[in-house]
Amino acid sequence: MSKTTVPIVKKIMSANDQIAEENQELLSKNKILTVNVMASPGAGKTSLILRTIENISTQYKIAVIEGDTAPVTIDSDKISSLNIPVVQINTGGECHLDALMVRNGIEQLDLSNTDLLIIENVGNLVCPAAFWLGEHFSVVIASIPEGDDKPYKYPNIYRGIQSLILNKTDLLPYVDFNIDYFKKGIEALNPGAAFFSLSCKTGDGFNKWTNWLKTKIQEIK
Amino acid sequence: MHELAITESLLNIASDYAIKNNAQRVISLNIITGKLSNIIGDSVQFYWDIISENTICEKSILIFNKIPAKFICQACDNEFEINSELIPCPICSSMNLRIIQGDEFLLNSIEIEKDLGDSNE
């Protein structure tokens, strides 16, 4: 027997990244802007998606992939009630979506008839950050009740994002939340990221987000 | 919690290279983790011992080489190491920083055992 060292130098996530790249190629070829929505449970991912659908679905054809850890259809039922095609992915307890799950989801959609694909990731501020799904950009939703220190405590998910939504601004009068401190953390991690503060409940600030999203959809056309 | 998925990926890559290089078994794996990569070595090791059973990697050792996090200041080009996240540039106090090292998660090499007389390709 002899001992040998085999050099490899390979990203351990490369298998996921390879599939993610194929996902993105397929989506770009079909001119479908794809957004990965990440947030903690309860921050308002589904509310944001529903209101976005209400605001722009007359202009653009939208499809949704819903990730949940448990075999429930609570979120996907809400979306299909708006006559939007939705694929439910049950991760079977896994804490995140990965590129392969999303590929299986994409295969069930009518790609020739879609302008915008929204992927709702599993509610979690840690694991989804490690798995690129093939999206064109990711958006993280933070919400006022979570507290203003979250960019400092969960830097990995707040780093490398192109857009950040601060939701539930209607609760600002009732919660101690320092927007400047929060924004400083986001800017340090993502110089130049788009920042939207809004309320999915009242609609306050929502148009800024949808206008920005519409320009992104146009850019890929 | 996603360490299981990561460990499966590690096993696939290591087994693939071991088989390609005609290994009898894998002795150890050299893994590089950046300080910001959020990988818990103990947790990967725990899953590793279970999922590598009955594979070419059975009983192999995981060696984690941790590398520090480095940022470059976009305002004054100063490069600096950090221990905690989100400190301003120590020279000009700017918070406009870009990460240049520390989020790696790589399989750098594996040590394998081969039959004597095998071609050493």
Structure, briefly:
The complex is a heterodimer of chains A (221) and B (121). With 221 residues, chain A is an alpha/beta fold. Chain A has helices at residues 14-29, 45-56, 74-80, 99-106, 150-153, 155-158, 179-189, 206-220; strands spanning 2-11, 33-39, 62-68, 86-90, 116-120, 137-143, 163-167, 194-197.
Descriptive report:
The complex is a heterodimer of chains A (221) and B (121). By secondary structure, chain A is an alpha/beta fold. Chain A has helices spanning 14-29, 45-56, 74-80, 99-106, 150-153, 155-158, 179-189, 206-220; strands at 2-11, 33-39, 62-68, 86-90, 116-120, 137-143, 163-167, 194-197. Chain A has one domain (14-220): Rossmann fold (3-Layer(aba) Sandwich), CATH 3.40.50. Helices cover 35% and strands 23% of the residues of chain A. Chain A is globular and about 70 Å long. The mean pLDDT of chain A is 93. With 121 residues, chain B is of the alpha+beta class. Chain B is built from 2 helices and 6 strands; from the N terminus they run αβαβββββ. In chain B, β1 (25-34), α2 (41-51) and β2 (61-67) form a beta-alpha-beta unit. Chain B is elongated. The termini of chain B are far apart. At the A-B interface, β1, α1 and α7 of A face α1, β5 and β6 of B.
Which key features would you list for this structure?
heterodimer; A: 221 residues; alpha/beta; Rossmann fold; seven-stranded parallel sheet; 8 helices; 8 strands; 35% helix; 23% strand; B: 121 residues; alpha+beta; hypothetical protein PF0899 fold; three-stranded mixed sheet; three-stranded antiparallel sheet; 2 helices; 34% strand; elongated
* Unreliable parts of chain B: none
- The helicity of chain B comes to 10-25%
Structural class of chain B: alpha+beta
Mean pLDDT of chain B: 89
Shape of chain B: elongated
Termini separation of chain B comes to: 38 Å
Tell me the CATH topology of the domain at 3-68 and 102-113 in chain B.
Answer: hypothetical protein PF0899 fold
CATH architecture of the domain at 3-68 and 102-113 in chain B: 2-Layer Sandwich
Q: Which chains have the largest interface? A: A-B, 36 and 41 residues
Strand content of chain B: 25-35%
Order of strands across the main sheet of chain B: 2-1-6
Q: What value does the Rg of chain A take, in angstroms?
A: 18 Å
Distance between the termini of chain A: 59 Å
Number of helices of chain A: 8
